[in-house]
Amino acid sequence: MAQISFRISDESKIRADKVLEQQGYSAGSYLQGIVEYIAQNGTLPVVIEFRPAALNPEEVFQEAIFQSRETYVNWRTFCRNELQVNQMTPLDKLRTHIDAINTAYEFYQRNESVIRQAPSQMEKINGGDPFHPEMFSRCLEYFPPLFGYLRKAVSFVHMNNRPVQQGDLDEMEPVLVQAAKAIDELQAMANTSVSAETLARFMLRDIQEALSCAMESTREHISYMTARSWQQRMTLVLGEAEKKYKRLGTSEQDVALARLRHDTRRLATKVTEYVETTSEPMTGFDTNLLDQVVAFYNEVLSLSGYISASIRTDADQPGNSGNDSA
User: Fold this and answer.
1) What confidence tens digit (pLDDT) does each residue in 133-167 have?
2) Which of 28, 157, 254, 314 has the largest CB neighbor count within 10 A?
3) Rounded Cα gap, residues 16 and 8, in angstroms
4) Domain limits at 100?
């Protein structure tokens, strides 16, 4: 006699047992009946269909741009911080960027048919029927070359037989410029009304508010409900900052904005963990990371030349008491 066994979670088994018991079955007897039915009739007693959720072409188009831009920005950061002239390329870290480029390209390939339907990148072909115009997907001119530029940039330093030379970096630069232009062209299609500079300003404003909320949420001796309210508001405005970040093109502030985004998200995780695991009186949050992120935010603000209110921490404001209202 054949025996079939498989593993499922305890929670799933408990739920299934409750349903089966109401019908007078055990899990074993019910599954045995299904197998015998298949053997006798040569067909399935029931077909379970998994229907994928409908994809919004515009959102998929924007996600493809975002993933491409992320690989570009991260590569720029790698070149600036990790590649040293007359030193060997750190191949283990290089592999991470190669994998990221491949992942972004695979996402584009997998969703190309959907991306081509995004209305914002469609262009009418002149000379056709005016009542039934033919449309052309402009993104096809930019996505494939973009990944080619990124891979070519990697090839200049993907070596293990000699150190990196200044000439390698010099040859790479115009290729990265071409990649940036392709990203900007794609982003310009998706952004129909808001400039990249305006988006960056709005993103920094959202991060400023998120950091202020983080400070309020972690003040000493406030009520749990107050801390929770500030934490939820922080999460909300960070979500808005994330939306704007995904719509940015390329600029001289790419690396700084990417680091600020990463550090702020890490801080938000720490704040959320603190609020969810601390009871009144609310106390004990380590403010070192908060102070570091605030300092870097103010640095980015200064380097970008944006006029906005800088953030001051408690260390800058002696005697400042907690605000117990959100």
Assistant:
1) 677 899 999 999 999 999 999 999 998 789 999 99
2) 157
3) 11
4) 57-190
Residue 315's pLDDT band (boundaries 50, 70, 90)? very low
Cα 150 from Cα 154, distance rounded (Å): 6
Could you tell me the two tokens for 236?
A: 């909300």
Residues 25 and 149 both lie in one domain: no
**What are the beta bridge partners of residue 123?**
136
Helix 288-304 with 254-277: angle, nearest 10 deg = 150
Instruction: Specify whether 78 is located in the same domain as 44.
Output: no
Q: Is residue 324 part of a domain?
A: no
Closest CA to 61 of 139, 130, 7: 139
Same domain flag for 183 and 61: yes
Burial 262-298 (b: 16+ CB within 10 A, else e): ebbeebbebbbebbeeeeeebeebeeeebeebbeebb
pLDDT tens column, 184-229? 999 888 865 566 777 788 889 899 999 999 999 999 989 888 898 8
Q: How many CA atoms lie within 13 A of 210 on its CB side?
A: 29
Kindly state the helix (H) or strand (E) to which residue 137 belongs, with its residue range. Answer: strand 135-137
Q: How far is CA 288 from the centre of its chain?
A: 25
Sequence-distant (≥ 6) Cβ neighbours of residue 91 within 8 angstroms = 160
**Cα-based angle 52, 67, 102 (whole degrees, multiple of 5):** 90
Q: Which structure tokens are listed for 198?
A: 């305006």
d(CA 105, CA 240): 26
The 10s digit of each residue's pLDDT in 293-314 is: 999 999 888 776 654 445 555 5
| 166-205 core/surface letters (b: 16 or more CB in 10 A; e: else) | eebeeebeebbebbbbbbbbbbebbbeeeebeebbbbbbb
Domain boundary among 175, 190, 205: 190
